[in-house]
Each structure stands twice: as structure tokens, then as C-alpha cells.
Amino acid sequence: MADEAAIDYTLNNPDTLTKYKTAAQISHKVLEAVTGWCVEGAKILSLCQRGDKLLEEEVAKVYKGKKISKGISHPTTVSPSSYVTPYTPLATDAEEAAAALKANEPVKIQLGAQIDGLGTIVCDTILVKSDRTKDGEVSGREADLMLATYYANELLLRLMIPPGLLASGTEEEKKKAAAEKRLTQTKISQMVETVVKSYDCNLVEGTTSWLFERNEIEGKKKIVLNPPDKEGKTEGNPEIGDVWGVEIGASLGAGKVKTLDQRPTLHRRTTITYQLKRPSSRQTLSEIVKKFGNFPFSLRQLDDERAAKVGVVECVRSNVLRQYEVVTDKDNAPVARLLTTIAITKNGIVRLGAPPALDLSRYKSDKKIADEQILKVLEQPTARSTGAKGKNKKKKKKPAKKSTEEEEEDSSEED
């Protein structure tokens, strides 16, 4: 096997993008399946278990016989209406295990797969199926929330594009565009919040997008929207060759959050080493390292859930593991959240793991975005079409405008 140090894991290596795309295909397939299972009365625990089982089955089908790591980059989580963070209950906690979905509530589904340590994570918000929302129109505050989140996400993705990357015109005009000053964290937050407030919603405080690296979903760069304090500062800028997990969260409340007095069930290994004292702690950590590496996991994924609940205590206390607190909207208001894994290439953004595009024809609101600057940004493409699919110059009937996904697919072919 080739020495890992000699393998190029940047986007300069076509194999890297292929692995990301393979992981994304799995994530999309499982997301679609879990979405279909989300009906009124469905048990959240069962949805998470079934999602993880399908992730494992699909991962097992790819890169067979290859000596590379592969698995789940984020366990299946299903977060009810007011929950902000990913939620995954345990079978050994009777009350939480009984939690079920309610009709019409916005539910956040988050999950992901990884191939050779290259992970894609995707989160989508859906309205739980009922007679009222099965196939018909969605209106009122539910529609406001979904539209606010969708357009805020589309704006943020465009703001991730480095200045001048998709500029057209003369070389002088391109150089001028590339030299433009980057937007500050404050300006980005203000623009995204303007979109959300257009629908009488608020941006969830502390919503953070992270740089993804091999075996790492919280890299050296981050973008923090609506930071709650001075600690929540943006660090670094998106650049060509980066892979990011871009997140957006909107609330029908004030956007403030609170931590529930509830057992955290989602954890992730840190880079800190510590000589654990308890045999149970060492055994739990050993299983975690073997199964999940540095990716997030749920305690329910470990062999003995009850033993794991005990074993992680010392690991968390010594900072060997990070626990993700259960966070909800402070007003218990409905929250919607989206997470898209993107690659930034010379031709723009490639959406690797992305929630399905919202069917805008179904969502009816009397509110709309009025800010001209933002509307102008939303009209811009996220990728340059390379023309790889359309070299026939013979004039034909003018086609419909390409979707964003088609533009990005074209652009990724020549990266």
C-alpha cells in the first residue's frame, strides 16, 4: 500500500473529488430514504437506527477490496421542531426512545458518509407529512420559515465564492474583480439576516460553517453567523481547493438558543491524548477510535450502549472526547437548518452533499426579499459552465435556463 504521506488528498488529485462524490451519492440516497420514512408518529430512534443501517450497507458496496477507511462521517440524526443541534436518542433512555414526529413540524435530518477519510455531510429540513402537506401547497409561517432558510442558504453559498472567481469581461476587468475586498463577518451576517428577516424570521445565533479536511470536519477555518459573543469569530477565508460544510439556521423565534438539561448522545474524538484511568473508559475509547476515527458518532452505535454511557464520562472530562450539547430555540420556536458540503474549484462551487432543491411552487408567502443588492447576488451563478456538454454549434430551439445543479455538474467535469 502506498505511503499515506505520499498521497495527494487535495482537490488537485481527481481521485479526491471522486471519493467525495462517492460519499455524497451515498449520503443523498440515505437522506432520501429517511425523508420518506418521516411521517406522523414515526419514532425518532427507529429513524436514526434505520438510517445508519442503510449508510453502512451502502458504504460496504463501494471501494471493495481497497485498503482504505470508509464509513459514516455523521450518524443519522432527526431533530424535532425547536431543536437546533443534531439529535439522536438512545434506546436505553425510555422517555427519549419514545419520542415521535408530529404532523407538519419542521424536522432536520442530518447524516453523512466518508471514503478514505473524505467526508460529506448533508442536512435538510422537511415538514412531517400529513394530509395538509403531503403534496399540496404550504402557506403561513411554515412557508415563511422554509423560504427564509432556502434563500439564506443560496445567498451564503454565493458569498463563499472568492472575489473575481467567476468574473467575465476583459483581463483588466477580471483583475479588478479579483482585487475586490472580501466581505467581513459582520457584513455577511447582516446580508444573510436581511434575507431571513424578509420572511419575519431570525438567524439562529452561532450558526457556523467549517472547513472540511481529511478526517476532520472542523478545520482551521470557520465562518460564524450571528455570533453570540466575541469568541465566535470567523477565521480564514474560502479559497480555491477548499471543501466546506456550509450551514444555515433560521428560527420563527428570536434566534436565541438554550442548552437542555439532557444527556448529550453525540460525541467526537479530539486530538488531545490522555492516559485514561478507568478500564471501562479505555475500552470505550478503543472502540470509538476503531469504528469512527475523528468523525462524530452516537452512543447508540457502540456495542454496549449502557457501558458506553459510563465509559465516555472520563473521556469527556479529560477532553479526549467532545460532547455535543442538546441545544434548542430559547423560545421553543420552530427552527429550520440546512448543511451543504461544497468544493471550491477554479470553476466555482461544486455541491457535493446538498439538500434537495426546494420546490418553490409549493410554498406560498405574502413576504419577499426587497433588498436590491441581495437580489442581484442571488441571480448570480455559483459555477461557470465549461460547455463540456454542449459543443454542437448547430442552432436549435433555445433551452430553458440551466438549474444551479446542472451548472455545477458541468463545472466539476473539468476540475
Short description:
32% of the residues lie in helices and 20% in strands. With 415 residues, it is of the alpha+beta class.
Describe this structure in words.
The protein is globular. It has ten helices and 14 strands. Helix 1 packs antiparallel against helix 2. The protein is an alpha+beta fold. Helix content is about 30%, strand content about 20%. A hairpin with a 2-residue loop joins strand 13 and strand 14. The strands form four sheets. Strands 4, 5, 6, 7, 13 and 14 form a six-stranded antiparallel sheet that branches.
**Main β sheet profile:** 6 strands, antiparallel
Overall average residue pLDDT: 90
Number of helices: 10
Distance between the termini: 27 Å
Over all CA atoms, what is the radius of gyration? 22 Å
Approximately how much helix is present in the residues? Answer: 25-40%
Q: Shape from CA axes? A: globular
Stretches where pLDDT is under 50 for at least 5 consecutive residues are 390-403
Order of helices and strands: HHEHEEHHHEEEEEEHEHEEEEHH
What is the strand content?
15-25%
Structural class designation = alpha+beta
Q: Total number of β-strand segments?
A: 14
